[in-house]
């Protein structure tokens, strides 16, 4: 069973539907016991970094997420869910992120001819051997909606990058922890394959 963490940050049902289309049992929940007992856990989300951290704290989910990631349960952050795994964000100065991974979230720099938020399809440069992108070939296109981007502190955890006004760390993998800035659940066939790769991942 895959637990999708509900912390009032939107975009939960589209993730649930995508998983169900793959034949996976998925439940949207904020129940601590359900999340801790799940085979895999997903933290989706859209919205502001500070509001999201406030919601996670309000629903007593911060410690639950720390426990899940620490005990080796496969964990996937999507969009805002990726950003929250890191230490801080320029969107919400003074608000600490979960700090499970090292790095910061920065605003996409203004550039003539480019709109912010970044909304649309971009191709990825994949790190060879990245788990989420097995079987996808070179430069798959995925769907982004964001104004802030990840700059990971450790280059070795970066699984995919893209270019939009700047060099964006679009996906990371570290042990049992995976995260995507883009939306696999909105990325058609490619996105479903990425979710399937996560669902099929077995910790070593």
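^ structure tokens above, recovered residues below v
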């Amino acid at each position: 069973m895959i637990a999708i963490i509900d912390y009032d940050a939107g975009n939960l049902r589209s993730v649930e539907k995508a998983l169900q289309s793959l034949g996976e049992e998925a439940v949207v929940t904020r129940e601590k016991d359900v999340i801790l007992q799940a085979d895999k856990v997903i933290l989706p989300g859209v919205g502001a970094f500070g509001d999201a951290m406030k919601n996670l704290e309000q629903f007593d989910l911060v410690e639950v997420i720390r426990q899940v990631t620490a005990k080796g349960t496969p964990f996937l952050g999507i969009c805002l869910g990726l950003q929250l795994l890191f230490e801080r964000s320029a969107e919400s100065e003074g608000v600490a992120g979960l700090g499970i991974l090292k790095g910061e979230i920065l605003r996409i720099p203004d550039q003539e001819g480019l709109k912010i938020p970044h909304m649309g399809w971009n191709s990825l440069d994949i790190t060879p051997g990245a788990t989420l992108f097995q079987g996808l070939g070179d430069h798959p296109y995925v769907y982004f909606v964001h104004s802030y981007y990840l700059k990971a502190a450790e280059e070795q955890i970066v699984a995919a990058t893209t270019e939009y006004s700047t060099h964006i760390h679009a996906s990371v993998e570290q042990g049992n922890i995976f995260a995507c800035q883009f939306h696999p659940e909105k990325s058609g066939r490619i996105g479903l394959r990425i979710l399937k790769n996560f669902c099929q991942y077995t910790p070593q």
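The mean pLDDT is 96.
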